[in-house]
């Protein structure tokens, strides 16, 4: 791990004890949970205990939670189910969705589903009324993320759910409302019941669990496109990942029990980061008006622009100093785009010079101080 | 079992005065590249023969396809000295040529074993008859045949046909040694290849502007140089740290002149390297009008910072043709890897198109770049890239 790891939104360092115990469970509970013999049944018990624990962490009934291979698959299951609907249909997504939703929507588009993209306001937040207005009679699914992975903007999921319900006046069924909650679960938290979503996607490795395990909450049934052995009620066929599910639920429990204390600490780090960044001449947080303590943003994620120095170069210089940050979006392709920032209407010279700094459970004040010091000197030396 | 190759040379034949020297260069080059295993190179009556062990045939064919001065080569089939077997091999050699559209042929036979019952003429006549019988549509043309079948009767009998194309041109080093300005783009490796094939041995110079250009961008250039090394039998890659030069240009020059001045600084650096390494020329991938800065006026300006000849083999080449060559020599897929070799922040939106020679020289000289360029040249890091039978290929990295 980098001496100063500030890329928790990309992946959180795993809890070592959870990985070790998960490995032990992989040996001990090796049976196929679908098998009827004792070995299978004991694995099934382990899996169901994990499901119940995870369900509690997200405010859901255990029967509503399916394990998946990760956040991307959890997003794709409700999205791809729209292909099985009959007749003309559309979906509505925000223009700032993670690629797991945004790119999947492009595929639906190629297959004949109309995709309506709702841009956020310049502050990076999607207006619930704008989402409700975008919904048409043939809209079968709406997808808006809980926390944006580049800016940390917390989306008003509960208000969007309400707006969708009242837009149809209760007489008709509202479209399925899906939420990519991958960046929310281990940070600001996510409660499926309280928000009133129909579906939500989660991923274990963002909160210190292992890769290859995620979950899908379904408050309303969907018809999955991919079929197989019928596991997870047919929602996600494929042999269960028992040790992964176990480690996921433990990581979620840890995040939930530490939430308030962690948030308070994250707010302190956020204040130091944003104030410190603003003190560097020329540096602009994105969105430009974001202030520390603003609850509309996850304190764990900040986007900072260094005009005159590309984000890629800044990330390279920081990496050299042992500080891991990201450019927020895959920026190495020939076609350079900063889709999320573009959708917010951020000027190109700012968006291309931006980096994402994200903190987590092990981040301490000296990390922020080191980052600020190195970023300031690199910026002074190399900005053009 | 041994593999025997017939090697055809082209222009060397025309260079009567230098022929012996050229031939020696070619043989040395071949022997050097095949030095990791046993090989024999011989020449008789203007033909070259290479013999290697069968297990080394793939390496031998790789080298033969990449050595400047070789027009083409063919793998010979070795059979017993029986006319039946020779005829069978000859028919087998003709079949793919007919399929490829050959309508006329001739048989060229040589007999060094005077104990063989037929003389050269007799062998050719008899094989010609067998081939005509096997391919009724085919005609004999001894002057300009579409296909030629060669037969040699020595300690065994060897049969071969027209083979694979080589690089052609002149043996490496016959044109001296030049300095290639190598970027990560499509053009410069092709420019290097063009002049390698004219017998100009090369070293390469890359301008690295870390952190504006990444380590991955350097690795890409190294892989391009290593690819050229498979044609040149090895390559010296000089990497000049140019960040300070870039920053000074950005600081001191008008925005529309930054590209022009950067190129002048590169030329200045190339001049210094060529001088210290005892090279005879500078090679660039410039093509007239390809980008705004590549105009005759600008070339005159940048070229004035060296008195070495600046060789621009692509100056009149269309980009599409350059790409075809880049694909053929295996550099294209490396060149299009997405690591930028120059930061957009340094590229002006409206670069100056036609430098006013005297005024621009005066303005550029007044800024005093010589010292900072000399510092970059003094800090050059050198890497020796050996000839390899497996030059690097672009690996698509999933991201």
Overview of the structural elements:
The complex is a heterodimer of chains A (384) and B (399). Chain A starts with a strand and ends with a helix. In chain A, strands 2-8-7-6-5-3-4 form a seven-stranded mixed sheet, sandwiched between helices. Chain A has two domains: 4-12 and 258-382, Aspartate Aminotransferase, domain 1, CATH 3.90.1150.10; 16-256, Aspartate Aminotransferase, domain 2. Chain A is of the alpha/beta class and 384 residues long. Chain A has helices at residues 16-28, 38-57, 71-81, 99-110, 128-134, 157-167, 192-195, 242-257, 259-278, 311-320, 339-343, 348-351, 365-382; strands spanning 4-5, 65-68, 90-94, 114-118, 139-143, 176-180, 199-203, 214-218, 284-286, 301-305, 323-324, 354-358. Chain A contains 13 helices and twelve strands. By secondary structure, chain B is of the alpha/beta class. Chain B folds into two domains: 2-165, VC0802-like (2-Layer Sandwich), CATH 3.30.2130.30; 177-386, Rossmann fold (3-Layer(aba) Sandwich), CATH 3.40.50.620. Chain B has 13 helices and 16 strands. Chain B has helices at 19-33, 57-64, 83-99, 120-134, 187-196, 215-232, 243-252, 258-277, 296-303, 319-329, 332-335, 357-366, 370-378, and strands spanning 2-9, 39-44, 47-53, 70-75, 77-79, 104-111, 139-140, 147-153, 157-161, 164-165, 177-181, 201-208, 234-241, 282-283, 310-311, 381-386. In chain B, the strands form three sheets. Chain B has a six-stranded mixed sheet, with helices on both faces. Chain B is elongated. The two termini of chain B are 47 Å apart.
